[in-house]
């Protein structure tokens, strides 16, 4: 894989848990029995947390980042509102995080997942699989094409609906940066109503998961663009820090 | 951190359909990514070290196995080196990725990794850590991925002096991090909650 600079190898700043959802969130009922109740044990990163797997651009297939086409029959395409989703993977210092794997998956335009556990009555689209992946560029940027996912009902409260969303799995350069999250769409009234979104106690943290319509990158007569930046944990500054063996 | 810095994106649950994005062949999306789920194979050639299986279940607070969880492990090679550009101590075994990803089985709830026994790696300051894998668990109902570690019960002396294990005050809780060996298989059950709750880390 291509790397323009020697990677940084310092420890990560401690995770700001006030900006993250707590484990026990009774409004999201499945969390009740799946939330640890004891305190997390903290320790400074070791080489096991500072390092992490990396993936080369040569791993990617031509259509891996095109959900409109990557499950479609030849000459056909997925049904729905055509979208480009793009942004940058950054760290907490605002620096780009290059060469990291970004995976995404979603329901189809009707709100149905291609998964045996999803029995929602909306139809499957034979030309839509719902998964894609890419690797961030040197400037941290990533992009993919898809169709806008539909909202869908889910068993939690009697009438709970998920906002339209795309799931993201993001690797960093260290295992401690590993993150799974969801991207929402600007203006969706379901965001404020969703028990999963509302597991996040901080309104600014929720807002940071909401992609913005991006007319500058919208292609006339073709496809609209949404912008979504992802922030991973940053490495602590090593200024004036003695480098310890094994650190 | 001061206000001029960005905040880490908030986590959201992986949900019940995480398989579509992370293990699409397992999810039935035949042919996606050439039919190979990333992380399914950790051993890519004539690997050095002792081949082992690590398997177990992820139990919820009612003792039911989670049948929709996803686990990732990250570990050193037999010589204690990580296969990563951020590994500064040497070159890891090219036939071992060090990274594995497996779902729990949709019918039984069991997960299984085919890997090698990791070598020991240092702790900041130079003391050695006992051989271990770091583990990340996501699933429906888990809002922020859970971090834990797998240690090995045939490494009793190394475990006794491991600086991370020794941060766990109660020995019974330390035992939740130690996989039990039988033949070449280590059993490591994860309890998300309850009397036998696994130790989870804020790394």
Explain what you see.
The complex is a heterodimer of chains A (247) and B (203). Chain A is mainly beta. Chain A has a single domain (46-229), classed as Aromatic compound dioxygenase (Protocatechuate 3,4-Dioxygenase, subunit A). Chain A is 4% helix and 24% strand. Chain A is built from two helices and twelve strands, in the order βαββββββββαβββ. Chain B has one domain (42-191): Aromatic compound dioxygenase (Protocatechuate 3,4-Dioxygenase, subunit A, Sandwich), CATH 2.60.130.10. In chain B, 7% of the residues lie in helices and 26% in strands. Chain B has helices at residues 18-22, 156-160, 171-174, and strands spanning 51-59, 70-75, 99-103, 110-116, 133-138, 146-152, 178-182, 185-187, 190-191, 201-202. In chain B, strands 1, 2, 3, 4, 5, 6, 7, 8 and 9 form a nine-stranded mixed sheet that branches. Chain B is globular. The model of chain B has no long low-confidence stretch (mean pLDDT 96). At the A-B interface, β1, α1, β3, β9 and α2 of A face α1, β2, β5, β6 and β10 of B. β1 (41-42) of chain A pairs parallel with β10 (201-202) of chain B.
